[in-house]
Specification:
This protein has eight helices and seven strands, in the order E-H-E-H-E-H-E-H-E-H-E-H-H-H-E. By secondary structure, it is of the alpha/beta class. It has a seven-stranded parallel beta sheet, sandwiched between helices. Bound molecules: NADP nicotinamide-adenine-dinucleotide phosphate. NADP nicotinamide-adenine-dinucleotide phosphate (NAP) binds next to helix 1, strand 2 and helix 6.
Length: 260
């Protein structure tokens, strides 16, 4: 399917690896010029080179922490007129409710709520003026079904989801479409870290933790960054003009429900 967005420009935050990278690759395949971001310059440059070579699109890089004001300013300086914004950042650490004090909550709110809100409000005026925009936030299945050890994620991302729900309805009339993707377990560095924590907690090996987690999924395996990226690119396409403020759950069937 032609996504109808060839030649448009995207900012993809936190995109040297994992779900951000999968999204960047799928957008590049659709002919989008990219501004990629991550903190570690070396990995970021390697990813950018690979995408340039494989897809022939323009790829700019901004090695910066997206959760800082300076990092966001550098990203917006590199790409002041994005047609597409993919909001993403690292996830908070797992733990127990009593582990998290003010500093931990502030960190989670900054990474997974305030940063995407501030980037969204920075790019919205331009998108509205130009009459076209796509904003996708990578949130988590934890928004729909809480993951007890990821309480910081449950809380911060629920706040972002509320912001997107209302704002999407305010900007839709201007051709700006906002939706969220809620990943379940995908085989990235993030899941490797979480499986390590599970193994420690349960006194099993990481391989045993991975096997047990995958066996619990109806699909029998984790998702891939490539599968994720294709869905993200579709949510940035011309074809989602009537899809407003939705939360697309991509969890291999983990959330058990007849509908909704
Ligand atoms: P990942 O494989 O660990 O990749 C994270 C990417 O983000 C890397 O490129 C990393 O590069 C970059 N990054 C992290 N913190 C950053 C920051 N402050 N500023 C700029 N770049 C940053 O993680 P992932 O699995 O793709 O996860 C992406 C998001 O989805 C996370 O918020 C995660 O919690 C959420 N999620 C993931 C899953 C899953 O199963 N994978 C499930 C639910 C939710 P640098 O380290 O070099 O900055």
């Amino acid at each position: 399917m032609d996504l109808g967005i060839k030649g448009r420009r995207a900012i993809v935050c936190a995109s040297s690896k994992g779900l951000g990278r999968g999204s960047a690759e799928a957008l590049a395949e659709a002919g989008i010029d990219l501004t990629l971001n991550a903190r570690t310059a070396e990995t970021l440059e390697a990813t950018a080179d690979d995408i340039r070579t494989r897809y022939g699109v323009v790829v700019k890089t901004v090695a910066a922490d997206v959760t800082t004001e300076e990092g966001r300013a550098a990203i917006l300086e590199a790409e002041p007129k994005p047609d597409i914004l993919i909001n993403n950042a690292g996830g908070p650490p797992p733990g127990f409710w009593s582990d998290w004090g003010e500093a931990e909550w502030e960190g989670a709110f900054r990474s997974n709520m305030l940063t995407p809100i501030l980037l969204t409000t920075a790019v919205l005026p331009g998108m509205i003026e130009r009459g076209w925009g796509r904003i996708v936030a990578i949130t988590s299945g934890s928004v729909k079904a809480p993951i007890p050890q990821l309480g910081l994620s449950n809380g911060a991302r629920a706040g972002l989801t509320g912001f997107v729900a209302g704002t999407a309805r305010q900007v839709a009339q201007h051709g700006v479409i906002m939706n969220n993707i809620l990943p379940g377990q995908h085989d990235t560095d993030r899941i490797k870290g979480l499986m390590g924590a599970t193994a420690d907690r349960e006194g099993i090996t990481v391989e045993e933790a991975r096997a047990a987690a995958q066996a619990r999924l109806p699909r029998g395996r984790f998702g891939t960054a490539s599968e994720f990226g294709k869905v993200c690119a579709f949510l940035c396409s011309e074809h989602v003009g009537f899809m407003i403020g939705q939360n697309v759950l991509l969890d291999g069937g983990a959330f058990n429900s007849t509908m909704g």
